[in-house]
């Protein structure tokens, strides 16, 4: 193997031959990785939500028009569901900005809370359609299995 001459090393950018000015240059800052959305998934969510709203309107417009409780508003149920979907979409966008590693801190608490809620359903749960699946908290009621699904993920 032949020895490289000084000029060859300079041309190749050999570290021994770099000048002080070149070595003291500030290194470019590493760019933060850009977060992006899976746009195909986002499109599917928006499409299915819109399709669901059309189906709700199709199924309930006649009965909502006839009911005096909704003032003849045929789109009452669709508008109500659209508002709920909009809140859900905003919540989804906010939660998607959070680093998911943060949720790992709460995993033990979430598991314990899941067990407590499931035991509470069997003891003090509200019976609906012959099954105890709901917990009532004031005027609201919820199914603890929905919390368990999120906790286990």
Question: Can you walk through the features of this model?
Answer:
The protein has 6 helices and 3 strands. It has helices spanning 6-12, 20-23, 39-66, 76-96, 107-124, 144-152; strands at residues 126-128, 131-137, 140-142. Helix 3 packs antiparallel against helix 4. The protein is flat. The two termini are 59 Å apart. The model has no long low-confidence stretch (mean pLDDT 83).
Are there runs of 5+ residues with pLDDT below 50, and where?
none
Mass-distribution shape: flat
Largest sheet: 3 strands, antiparallel
Question: Gyration radius, to the nearest Å?
Answer: 30 Å
Q: Tell me the helix content.
A: 55-70%
Number of strands: 3
How many H/I helical runs? 6
Gap between N and C termini, in Å?
59 Å
Judged by helices, strands and strand pairing, the structural class is mainly alpha
Average pLDDT, all residues: 83
Keywords:
mainly alpha; 153 residues
Furnish the topology, listing elements before pairings.
Layout: H1 6-12, H2 20-23, H3 39-66, H4 76-96, H5 107-124, E1 126-128, E2 131-137, E3 140-142, H6 144-152
Antiparallel strand pairs: 1-2, 2-3
Helix pairs in contact: 3-4, 5-6
